[in-house]
Amino acid sequence: MQFLWKYIDDLVGKGLDWDIIARLLFYASLTLVPLALPLAVLLASIMTFGNLGERNELFAMKAGGVSLYRIMFPLFIFNIIISFGAFYFSNNLLPYTNLKMRSLLFSIQQQRPEVSLRNGIFTDPVDNISIKIDRKYRNSNMLEGIMIYDHRNRGGNTNVTTAETGSIYMTEDKSVLILDLYNGYRYEEIKKEEDLRSAEKSRPHQTSKFDRQVVYIPLDVIEINKANEDLFKNSFEMLNVNQLKYATDSLNNYLLKRKKEIWNNIILYSLFKAENKWVNIPEEIKPIAQQNVGTYGDSNKKIMHVDSVFNNLNDMQKSKVLDFALNFANSAKTYVEVSIDEINGYKQWIARHKVEWHRKYVLSIACLLFFLLGAPLGSIIRKGGFGLPVIVAVLIFLLYYIISITFEKTVRQAVITPEIGMWISTYVLIPLAIFLIYKAATDSMRVSSHFYEKINNFFRRKKR
Asked: pTM value?
């Protein structure tokens, strides 16, 4: 249901066949298996041992000399097999499922690009075309306040079309997108090779007014059953553990290389930009600067005595030097800020790969961990069926899920390492599992029948 509500706008009103929707829902359902399987193991463990306890079968086995550990051992081996199966599914089948679902959803979104238009924001219904509309009539292709940026010439925002009203639709074979525009203007900047080499900022352009203009945009037809999977196959959700490790190493190497490039740029062009040569120094200051050059120690390397140069300048020259230094410092500061954002972006992208790598192991271990929680808890509460076990299982799973999601977000922001953030929920529940197993094995923690009677009486309607 969450998947349906999330992509309801992309699915409704596109004339899709039922088999396409069924295939998409099938892929979406498979993506939930790694999350649903630990909850299923937890619920099954509580119900199984709860039924055994409710029917006094656990008491009979313990009276016959069979300990709780011996009772749990066969199911423990079975859950190890389930954990390996969960890892195999997450590592081999889930990336393929994610790839199929993403490419199929992308193909569905491309079936009617006009549906993706939203009021007041720029959208890209097709490649290299950005469209903003002020209003779109529901159940109609009529638009108001249209602004179109055509980037197909790869020259920036040099081709702009505006119109008061218009409509947008596709041909039946879905090969051409048609824009029927009314009462608008078209602005186009003309770039020639000699203009690009020129240092002047002015460019020739032409502006035209039209009462009606029909624009035909050819589309790359993508069929549903032949989606372009190359667009998504390198995403972290479509990789197995070996591919994720390789991608992470490649990203780390590129990040290290980029850090060195940024460092060298700061050293060469910010801190020591004028070393050994007179560059970016005003002409009237060069003679004074050349008179204040000495040597560094015993070497023949010449250095500039900055304070002496500055003190020998007049007020006008000092003002020029300070303005130059201020602009230079602001430029260096801007470069550092942009570089920091770039580095943080790469770190977060690397963190996403590491999160996906650890997730495949965490969810597999969770199947085994939830069995170790559910089995002793079921023997303690001694209730089977879909009543109290469901409530207890959901509460435990919510605790696990909230901790996992909270710390996963901090890992994505590169605040803490994945080794801590992705496994913190496991670290929290392991001591609880050990405590419950010990209490259940020693029969030192039981929930009596009077406890359930009090709960039933609390919710039972009182007689007047």
From this structure: 0.64
